[in-house]
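Tokens in:
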């Protein structure tokens, strides 16, 4: 669609209708010292073709996968997306920009979200799921707030192996409230959360663990859940890669009271970091404390099946100050995309794809170890694992970038003690040739 600006006659006609002399009148209510008086420093105008060429030049500055071999994960994952997903997502029954407040004209959207909730419950092993939140980080923060409401505790314990940005969002939510956040350190040898630091903690509302954790290691959720429940707290399991539960036991089956995280890898493109999808599920006994909204199935006066918003515990509805959340919308279109993705794969397809992701990552891990690259955490992993470049090879990462290989995420930014350690990720989108090329370059 081309941008067609208003003419001076258009602007004059609109100003006359609203009773303003000029454009400045529209901003009269804004104090003068809050307004910009000088002109914006903008480049000269371009033709459509010049602008297209300029945008192409800007895009060429980005390290996109078509020109780079990318081994990055850390919360955003490169997966193939079936063509069926994008085709179905564009149908008029589903493609909508806002909430289905009028169920009589929104049955397609409501049914799609209902199916999404059902698939999320099956994947995460819990009884109730909402119609999605913004992203994985806000989903975890909302889970923590939900636990505080239920248990009335004053402290929350977070594993230091939860995605660092998720932890930062939780701090942003909780720091003004007076609740205490305690970080559980990780074990140097295993890359797992150290449960011994839970001893002596009292007045806990919740313990939150990520599995697979930020290092890609699979946590012992059952043991952590038992310790958490022994202290009268709720057990929250978060994740950045839900595909792992196609192969691993679900959080609900291992004792999680709340499971939440990012659903981007289920049919949503990486898109340079967004949009995401906040997945959230819990046990039925806590459903009225769950944030967001929930689509339910009912029947009309003639006994025909229909779908409605059954619960909507947000501030703009009748609950107002009693609302469980200030989340005002959901990532509806992304939720529908993930439902279509999961339905396209089916249960057996999810297992096969998860196994393929696991096996490819193990192939790269074994190949690197065989060539002398240290892998510090000798634990089962999924998709991601940590390597340490040998001493004397401090420029390895930079030299690989120059050759068009993004060899993982430097961990020292988040964990200063892990200098020269990198988090590598492999999905089904990585070819064997790409992995062999990485091993060869690191070895050389």
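Residues out:
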């Amino acid at each position: 669609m081309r941008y067609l600006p208003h003419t001076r006659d258009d602007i004059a006609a609109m100003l006359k209708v609203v009773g303003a002399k000029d454009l400045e009148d529209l901003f009269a209510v804004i104090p003068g010292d809050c307004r910009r008086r000088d002109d914006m420093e903008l480049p000269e105008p371009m033709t459509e073709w010049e602008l297209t060429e300029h945008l192409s030049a800007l895009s060429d500055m980005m390290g996109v996968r078509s020109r780079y071999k990318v081994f990055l994960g850390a919360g955003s994952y490169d997966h193939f997306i079936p063509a069926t997903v994008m085709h179905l997502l564009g149908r008029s029954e589903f493609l909508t920009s806002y909430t289905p407040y009028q169920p009589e004209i929104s049955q397609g959207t409501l049914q799609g979200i209902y199916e999404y909730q059902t698939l999320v419950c099956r994947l995460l092993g819990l009884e109730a799921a909402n119609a999605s939140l913004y992203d994985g980080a806000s989903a975890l923060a909302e889970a923590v707030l939900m636990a505080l409401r239920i248990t009335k505790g004053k402290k929350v314990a977070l594993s230091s192996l939860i995605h660092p940005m998720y932890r930062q969002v939780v701090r942003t939510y909780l720091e003004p409230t007076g609740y205490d956040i305690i970080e559980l350190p990780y074990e140097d040898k295993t890359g797992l959360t150290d449960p011994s630091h839970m001893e002596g903690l009292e007045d806990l509302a919740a313990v939150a663990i990520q599995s697979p954790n930020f290092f890609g290691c699979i946590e012992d959720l059952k043991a952590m859940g038992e310790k958490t429940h022994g202290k009268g707290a709720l057990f929250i399991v978060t994740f950045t890669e839900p595909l792992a539960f196609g192969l691993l036991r679900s959080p609900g089956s291992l004792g999680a009271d709340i499971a939440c995280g990012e659903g981007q890898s289920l049919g949503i493109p990486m898109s340079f970091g967004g949009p995401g999808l906040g997945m959230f599920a819990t046990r039925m006994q806590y459903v009225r404390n769950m944030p967001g909204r929930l689509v339910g199935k009912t029947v009309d006066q003639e006994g025909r099946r229909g779908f409605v918003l059954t619960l909507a515990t947000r501030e703009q509805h009748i609950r107002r100050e009693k609302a469980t959340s200030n989340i005002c919308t959901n990532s509806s279109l992304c939720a529908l995309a993930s439902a279509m993705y999961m339905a396209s794969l089916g249960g057996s397809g999810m297992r096969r794809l998860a196994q393929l992701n696991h096996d490819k990552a193990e192939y790269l891990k074994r190949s690197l170890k065989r060539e002398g690259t240290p892998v510090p955490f000798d634990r089962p992993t999924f998709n991601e694992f940590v390597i340490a470049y040998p001493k004397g090879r401090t420029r390895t990462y930079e030299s690989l970038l120059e050759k068009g290989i993004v060899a993982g995420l430097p961990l020292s930014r988040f964990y200063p003690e892990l200098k020269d350690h990198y988090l590598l990720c492999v999905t089904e989108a990585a070819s064997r040739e790409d992995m062999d090329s990485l091993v060869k370059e690191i070895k050389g």
